[in-house]
Specification:
Blueprint: E1 2-7, H1 11-20, E2 26-32, H2 36-46, E3 50-52, H3 55-59, E4 66-69, H4 76-85, E5 89-93, H5 100-113, E6 117-120, H6 127-135, E7 142-150, H7 156-160, H8 176-192, E8 197-204, E9 210-218, E10 223-229, E11 236-242, E12 246-249, E13 260-263, E14 266-269, H9 279-292, H10 295-319
Parallel strand pairs: 1-2, 1-4, 2-3, 4-5, 5-6, 7-10
Antiparallel strand pairs: 7-11, 8-9, 9-10, 11-12, 12-13, 13-14
Length: 327
């Protein structure tokens, strides 16, 4: 049994705990928030045995093996390092870290402590990613891949009213690229490796943060367009366009809930029978790696994360998007 604690009281932590309770390898033991009342209410909501607003007490909890990190983006690195050095594994919500410098420093601490720090990027663990990989040869020569994640953020109204929530704040490593673009970029790198080059064109706020944009990834024989936004209403899907057929993901690329092979003759559902709660799959992978001390499998995931962060850094440099952590 992997005994786990959580940082954060947002919707994503709600989702994580809901998935956690579906996997017999885990047991929720404590929730943490800087706000004592929030911690207490969150613990009641999820029937957590313990809650705390004391960071040191939480970090040094004697009956906790791993901690889920869902703090603001700019704190992911700091919190993950502290967790590893406290002798616990970390499960860190996307974006894993803010930049390549933090990634290298964090991997050094992983090596130093012998504890895992996982990148909780859901689609890389979903069985439909393997379905896509195996089906790609059946569509002929790949020419184009198109990904769309345009989801109007409830917090964008705060921006329109003159406020700057964390997700739209460069101090907290926010923006559409880090929140949504990371999904499609991760899928591309997992399937095809790091692109030869990329360009990113975006809409930005006065504070320099991107609210929506289009990333073009260039591979030797095909082109990928990733469109994502938090400032407008749009569509969510993904299509792999081959000379003989296409593969279509009809919903959010972040969830990979279905896969269809489409030809002139019609559509065929080839997606794996899967749970709607995709977080379960990443938790199963993390448990397997921890229990088997499987550093080879862990490194295969980290190689993808490293290349993804390099792509995000490149995209930000092209647009002058600078985070506090870059300095």
């Amino acid at each position: 049994m992997i005994r786990i604690g959580t940082i954060g009281t947002s919707v994503i932590t709600d989702d994580f705990i809901h998935a956690l309770k579906q996997v017999e390898d885990y047991q929720l033991v404590c929730v943490y928030s800087r706000d004592e009342e929030k911690a207490r209410l969150f613990a009641q909501k999820h029937a957590s045995p313990e809650c705390t607003s004391n960071w040191d007490a939480f970090l040094n909890h004697k009956h906790m093996d791993a901690i889920y990190v869902a703090s603001p983006n700019d704190l992911h690195f700091e919190h993950s390092v502290a967790i590893l050095r406290a002798g616990k594994h970390a499960i860190t919500e996307k974006p894993f870290v803010s930049n390549a410098h933090e990634f290298e420093a964090l991997m050094a601490v992983v090596k130093e402590t012998g504890k895992f720090c996982f990148d909780a990027i859901l689609p890389l663990h979903h069985p439909n990613l393997q379905v896509i990989k195996e089906a790609l040869p059946s569509i002929g020569k790949l020419k184009l891949m198109m990904s769309n994640m345009v989801q109007y953020s409830s917090r964008y109204k705060m921006v329109l009213n003159g406020q700057i929530p964390n997700i739209f704040n460069p101090v907290h490593s926010g923006g559409a690229l880090m929140d949504l673009g990371v999904y499609s970029t991760s899928i591309c790198v997992a399937l095809f490796g790091k692109p030869e080059s990329l360009t990113y064109t975006c809409n930005k706020l006065a504070n320099g943060i991107d609210t929506s944009g289009v990333m073009v990834l260039n591979y030797p024989d095909f082109v990928v367009t990733n469109t994502f936004g938090k400032d407008s209403f749009g569509i969510n899907n993904m299509t792999f366009c081959g000379e003989e057929a296409s593969l279509q993901i009809p919903l959010q690329p972040s969830r990979l809930l279905g896969v269809e092979r489409v030809t002139m003759q019609g559509r065929q559902d080839i997606g794996a029978e899967s749970l709607r709660d995709g977080m379960v799959y990443e938790l199963l992978d993390f448990a397997s790696i921890i229990k088997n001390n499987d550093w080879q499998k862990y490194q295969s995931f980290m190689n993808i994360t490293k290349d993804v962060i390099s792509c995000l850094d490149d995209a930000r440099r092209q647009n002058g998007i600078v985070f506090r952590t870059d300095r």
